Amino acid sequence: MAAPMLRWCCPGRRFAFARVGCGSCHRRGPPTGSTSNGKRGQSSVAQQPHITAQKPRKGEPEWAAVVGLEIHAQIASNSKLFSGSQVCFAAPPNSLVSFFDASLPGTLPVLNRRCVEAAVMTGLALDCHINRKSLFDRKHYFYADLPAGYQITQQRLPIAVNGSLAYSVYVGRKPSQMVTRTVRVKQIQLEQDSGKSLHDDLRSQTLIDLNRAEGQLRVDANISVHRPGEPLGIRTEVKNLNSARFLAKAIDYEIQRQINELENGGEILNETRSFDFKLGCTVPMRDKEGKQDYRFMPEPNLPPLLLYDSGSLPSGADPQQVINIDQLRERLPELPRVTRQRLVQQYGMLPEHSCVLLNEVGLLEFFQNVIKETRAEPKKVTSWVLNTFLGFLKQQNLAVSESPVTPSALAELLDLLDRKAISAPAAKQVFEELWRNEGKTPAQIVAEKKLELLQDPEALEQLCRSTLEAHPDVVMDLKRGNPRAINKLIGLVRKATLGRADPTAIKEVLERQLSS
């Protein structure tokens, strides 16, 4: 109870759908626009008349879906939003409940500064406008896990509004087939969390836990479908989705359910549904016909929340008593979009490579540590990290933190390769030895396996000349215009050197001798 919560309201986004034959399959097309229907109880979508199936216009997709998300995220703080009760994961039920959490008469809320700072920093990270003045409201409804009979939230004037988040998605099989899309954020608000209801079916009882401090993230999805060019459809809300996988499944199922319902002559009800992850379908919870009246009213026990920047900060103000937005902006870490741009500009890597580095936990830090310790070109480091290193991780289903190859070891290996002490095939062999985690350095492995490249130019000249003299048929084949013949000669020279000659150097010597 009163656990610190942030709620992000993401306005709806349209997707085009086309029917395949007479079956129930659909395919997702590119976004065709967007509309605001993400805020529960406020959307004009719920006021639209129900839509029945009509003939689509020629060349248009048969259906368009609109999805808006409400994201409830618990804040990482040491105490609750409106009380001093400790936040502790997996604490015994009702062991961290203050008088205010239990809604005893006469208790008053005290706003947690850390939660306000977290909300402001989240708003800054999502390019929101931070309201210098925000208000708290009471949202009234009756349920067993809400002992006060109301929830403290920010309905009228939230802490942040009008943000956006850009993200990249693959639209094809090739990594280069990537596009950037943007989701709009309607508002971010601080909100008191309710308690937790634990249903005991055996005893036909419901138990209430007012700790409510388990770091959960929950999503409510508002979903509707309509014919392109027609008014938006009646929406349903799918509640309490706690993973991205279930969220995607619930949205896909609900879109298809609504399409099937309309095409069979039915109508869509403005209702609340839940997702049954075992059956993979949504089921009704309660009707939301009409506009639900939560009887919002100003919270009388909390004054307006005032925020300042460096220019508007009152003179002589105690820094501990005010929140400076500019100071919080300075505390923000480098945001993902900025990091991706920096990687592209600083190291000349492709945008899709920068996305992979950020998407794999710990991979960016690994890459940057290798860059710091090696003289190899950044493009070569990128290739080794994303292809060889990440490939080995995927094969053995390991996280970056579990890798037996350290950034220092890979940096040393790339230095050996960069100064042509070893060949590229030998470097792969050394990497495989490093992966076995026998505690040896790349230099030790190179010495033991005798993988050093032949450094004597005269010896290489003699080996190449001997190879040409011993294989006149291959030389003749090359002169007849077969480009593959040169590769055969390079292979013969490398075989004679036990793989210790650089293929590039061999090719240069052979071409010079053949042209002389």
Automatic annotation (TrEMBL):
This is Glutamyl-tRNA(Gln) amidotransferase subunit B, mitochondrial. It is found in: Mitochondrion. GO terms for biological process: glutaminyl-tRNAGln biosynthesis via transamidation; mitochondrial translation. The keyword Ligase applies. Gene3D superfamilies: 1.10.10.410. InterPro entries: Asn/Gln-tRNA_amidoTrfase_suB/E (IPR017959), Asn/Gln-tRNA_Trfase_suB/E_cat (IPR006075), Asn/Gln_amidotransferase (IPR018027), Asn/Gln_tRNA_amidoTrase-B-like (IPR003789), GatB (IPR004413), GatB_Yqey_C_2 (IPR023168), Gln_synth/guanido_kin_cat_dom (IPR014746). Residues 28-59 are annotated as: Disordered. It comes from Bos taurus. Keywords: ATP-binding, Ligase, Mitochondrion, Nucleotide-binding, Protein biosynthesis, Transit peptide.
